[in-house]
Design a protein that fits this description.
321 residues; alpha/beta; Nucleotidyltransferase, domain 5; 5-stranded mixed sheet; two-stranded antiparallel sheet; 11 helices; elongated
């Protein structure tokens, strides 16, 4: 009875508004939809609209409700951001030996939650069996490579001195050098022992086919378990790092001084190698020195100029005034 009274009163109020078109807004429609759900005999009291109209309102409200609710739920799979897809491709290209499980594990450590199937979907497909690049292969062996070579220096009295240098490939470090007027295989073998005491010997040694590397020298290398890698005849480019070092010594030092004697040359080279190891920047080392130099912040103070190699070169540092 209360529902019937409510329905009749509502219709009287609507009709009293006296408009040609009944002003049934959303609130009025919701009222009749609600009455149709709670009152079984609601059709008997309905006079201003047809019962089918109320049913259509209810269906429309049903569609609107589920359309609103569907917007809150992702349809299908979540879209993978472009930066994550690019990261998966970069990781698969940089690590050809890795499969989807390894890359998936790395992504989980980065806080990126994906399925392993998604990782496999965006990986770069290898056209051939996975293999490391030549750069990776050489980087894995560069710490076990050293190069040796001789070069000559004339003195003020027209004598010829021989300089023996040993260069480590990893940081372009000059491991050892010495000067002599009469190089022999025995003297050269002794330099190898002085350069690599105890268990610091490298795995491979690159040299040319000069006769100064005689039987004594080769025997010493075998005793130290060092394998020789001989360059082809008349092919200095196969020992490029040592040749580049010798060229730098000539261009940056010896072409600007006159060597008096053996001790004078040894002192000059010692000064240059101190500059070479600790101050001189190298293109192949990302503009760093073989013994890495720390980057100084500008707040340390003014720039000071420190002469090296007798003033041929300088080192610049920030120091408090």
């Amino acid at each position: 009875m209360q529902a019937e009274n409510l329905a009749l009163c509502h219709q009287i109020i609507v009709l009293q508004r006296g408009r040609k078109r009944l002003p049934l807004d959303s609130g009025n429609r919701l009222l009749w939809v609600w009455l149709s759900r709670l009152w079984a005999d609601w059709r008997s009291a309905l006079a201003i609209v047809n019962p089918e109209t109320v049913i259509s309102w209810h269906r429309k409200g049903f569609r609107l409700y589920w359309a609103w609710k569907s917007r809150r739920v992702q349809i299908g799979r979540w879209e993978i951001p472009q930066e994550i897809r690019d990261l998966i491709r970069r990781m698969s290209q940089a690590n050809p030996l890795w499969g989807a499980p390894r890359i998936h594990g790395e992504l989980l450590k980065l806080g990126i939650a994906l399925s392993q199937a998604t990782v496999a979907k965006y990986m770069v497909r290898q056209r051939k069996p996975p293999s490391q690049s030549w750069r990776t292969f050489l980087n894995n062996h560069v710490r076990d490579l050293v190069a040796v070579d001789f070069f000559t220096v004339p003195t003020v009295s027209f004598r010829v001195l021989f300089v023996f240098v040993i260069l480590a490939h990893d940081r372009r470090r000059c491991v050892h050098f010495n000067v002599t007027e009469y190089p022999t295989a025995e003297w050269t073998a002794r330099q190898i022992v002085q350069a690599f005491p105890w268990d610091t010997a490298p795995r491979y040694l690159i040299r040319d086919r000069d006769r100064v590397y005689g039987e004594d020298f080769r025997r010493q290398l075998r005793q130290m378990d060092i394998h020789e890698a001989l360059t082809a005849p008349r092919s200095p480019w196969q020992n490029a790092y040592a040749e580049r070092l010798i060229g730098s010594i000539r261009r940056e030092c010896l072409d600007h001084v006159i060597v008096l004697n053996e001790s004078s040359l040894r002192r000059i080279l010692r000064s240059y190698f101190d500059y070479y190891q600790h101050s001189r920047t190298h293109l192949s080392l990302a503009k760093d020195a073989p013994d890495s130099r720390a980057i100084q912040p500008p707040e340390l103070g003014a720039v000071f100029e420190l002469p090296q190699v007798g003033g041929l070169h300088h080192r610049y540092e920030l120091r408090a005034a």
